[in-house]
Amino acid sequence: MVIEETKTSLGSYQKSDTDTFKRLRRLRMTESFRSMVRETELSPNDFIYPLFVVPGKGVRKEVKSMPGVFQLSVDETVKECREVRSLKIPAIILFGIPEHKDEVGSEAYDPNGIVQQAIRAIKKDIPELTVITDVCLCEYTSHGHCGIVRGEEIVNDESIELLAKEALTHAEAGADMVAPSDMFDGRVSAIRRILDENKFLKLPIMSYAAKYASGFYGPFRDAAESTPKFGDRRSHQMDPANSNEALREVEQDILEGADIVMVKPALSYLDVIRRVKDRFSMPTAAYNVSGEYSMIKAAARNGWIDEQRVMMEVLTSIKRAGADLILTYFAKDAARVLKQAA
Ligand code: PBG
Fold this sequence. Notes:
This protein is an alpha/beta fold. 37% of the residues lie in helices and 21% in strands. The protein is built from eleven helices and 14 strands. The model has no long low-confidence stretch (mean pLDDT 95). The structure holds ligand PBG.
C-alpha cells in the first residue's frame, strides 16, 4: 500500500507501508562495498610537508607546542627529506630561522641565507624531491612583521620588492616553487616579474591567496620564532568573517600569475576551499596549520580522542572540500597509515 508520495530533486517516489526498498545502509555493510563507493581517497601525493631550518649542525630541537615537529639544522633537514621521500611524499615547504634578525629581514634575501643553504643541500642529495619555499619576512625581521615597518604601518610596496628579491634567491639556489605567504597586494606579480626577468619562466608560484588573520597560527610562531613584537597581522591578512573577499583575493592572484592558490587555515575555512575550487577550478592547496595540528596532539595526549582516526578524518575532510594539495605536519604520519593500509 502506498502511504506517501515524495518529490525529490531526482523525481518522485512512492513510499510503501513496508518501505524497505530504500536502504542506504546496504552499501555500508562490508568494507569491500564501502571502499567501492568511497568518494574521497587520500594519497601521499596530496601532501606537502613543512620543515623549519635553523643554523648549526646536528640540531634537532622539538617545538614545545608542536609535538613531533622539530627545528632542524641543514644536515638534519636533508636526513628528514630522505625519510619524506621514502614515504612517497612528493614535496616539502621550507621555513627558515636566521642567525640574526634585523629591521629589514636581510637574511631572507641573502644568497647564503639559511633557506638558500638548505635548498642547495636538499637538491644535491635528493634531486627528485620538490622543494617549495615560503616567501615572507616575518621570520627574519627583528619586529616579527612580514614586511618593512614605518611607525605603526606595515608598508606594502617596498615590502613586495624585498619579497621578490627573496623569491629570486630561492630560485637561484634551486627551489622548484616559491610560495608567498605575506598577503601584501601585488606580490605575486612582483615575484612573477623578477623570476621571468631572470629566466625562471618555468618556475611556478603557489600563492597563499586567501590567508586569514587566524588564532590557529600560534604554535607556528613558536616554531618559526616569528611572533610580532607589537601589533598583529590584521592589516594584511583576511578577516575570518569574509568569504566573498576570499574569491577576490584568489582571482587577483590568478590574474597576477599564481599557478596554485592556497586557502589557509583549512578546517575553519572548508567552505572557502569549496567556493574557491568551484569558482576557479585551479589547482587548490589548503594549509592544515599548526594550531589545527596541536589541538589534535593535545587532545590525543589526554586520551580524549583517537589521534590516528581524527588525523585521517580531518585530512579527508580537507580533500573532500576541494583541496588537491594539503600542507600538513601530519604528512609523514598519514603517509605511514596509508602505506600500512595498502
Ligand atoms: C608566514 C607564515 C605563517 C604560517 C605560514 N607562513 C604565520 C603567520 O602568518 O603568522 C603559519 C603556518 C602554521 O600555523 O602552521 N611566514
